[in-house]
Amino acid sequence: MAILPSVTSDGIASRTGLPTLPKAAVQGEPPLPPGVRLDRPLSSDDAAAIALWKNPQLQVDLATLGLARGDLIDAGLLRNPRLDMLFPVGLKPFELLFNFPVDAFWSRPRRVEASQAAYDQLAQSLIQNGLNTVRDARFAHADFVLARTREITGEQIAALRKRIVELTNARLRAGDISELEAMAARTEEAAAGEQLVRLKHDVELASERLRILLGLSINRTGIDVVATAVDSSPPPDAGDLLEKALQARPDLRAAELSIASATKRARWERSRIFVIAGQLSSKGIGNNGILTGPGLSTELPIFNRNQGLIARADADVEVASRQYLNLKQRVAFEVYEARKLLVQALDVLARLREQVLPPLKQTVTLAEQQYEKGDVAYLFVLEQSRGLVDAELRVADAEAAVRRSRAQLERSVGTR
């Protein structure tokens, strides 16, 4: 793990509420966050915390800080002085020329400012990378939970279909139904079995996807997850969320710093028009010994006045400014879209819980009561139970949609 500045480590922790990333470099495989263990089911927060500490792509992104830090160190270094020496050969006298770049005294501060601004911009932008990683970890966790729920539901449906086939075959032997009706029941049982096999594979894929995203070693036997209660509270007003996003989004802050970095680089490029060096010249003059005197050396900015790099730096300022305006519009759209999707998911979940599940549960209860009285066949009870299981699966889908939408909204706003 790279050496992180406080602005990156503390910025990610304050926005996510998860353990702060270690600022010191870590050799080898990164450790687990404090309080997180792999021998017990992982919550959504546990998965997000592990991803922040161990996600391979985030580790690559954080390592780029080392490149920016190297550029910052290089910007602060002075050019080495130059020493030219000509030895006396025959009638040629001894000559010595000491050359020191004087222009470094006014160009170096501007060069350091530009590199520092670029470093700060990268450090701020990596906070957004951390938020993206947290969102992806919550997505993968929600998908794993949903895959597990689908598998359990698939097992229930397969068991119901098997029981329906048994009852159908009994009715077929009794002559109550035709062979065609019995074949239809067996076909539905086979389809339920095929779907169950596919759902089991989906669980394995979801588990592997989460493991890779968390950066866990490939020789692990597997991980388990636990579903947390769905937060059904409505989101704040869109205007309030947008105002908060404009203040909290680290990529917006990074875009502002990018403008500052480009502006300072343009100032530095303008300071490079004149290249001046101080000189100290020593020369052997006949019987007078070695005479020494100061001087200056400079390039005459007649043909090359650094016009190309100055024009490029000015263009960088314009590009950074336009990118900032474009990013503000994209942030607004992301906030409105994420909020709308969350509202929609909450509405679907509420309708399923309040309007769909209660009547189905009541229907199953009544069917069981009528079966006990002998008014209906057990096959009717199984059919009603299958409808309830299907509805519970739709509820699980809606809960996963709420979890994903809330994670996306937190990422769009830039903070929890």
Task: Please provide a written account of the structure.
The chain has 416 residues and is α+β, with helices and mostly antiparallel strands. The chain has a single domain (6-413), classed as Outer membrane efflux proteins (OEP), CATH 1.20.1600. The protein is built from 9 helices and 4 strands, in the order αααββααααββαα. It has helices at 6-16, 44-54, 56-76, 104-174, 179-214, 238-248, 250-270, 307-373, 378-413; strands at residues 82-86, 95-101, 276-284, 290-298. The chain has a 4-stranded antiparallel β-sheet, with no helix packed on it. A hairpin with a 5-residue loop joins β3 (276-284) and β4. The model has no long low-confidence stretch (mean pLDDT 87).
Please indicate the count of domains. 1
Mean pLDDT, to the nearest integer, reads 87
Main pleated-sheet profile? 4 strands, antiparallel
Strand fraction equals 5-15%
Distance between the termini: 25 Å
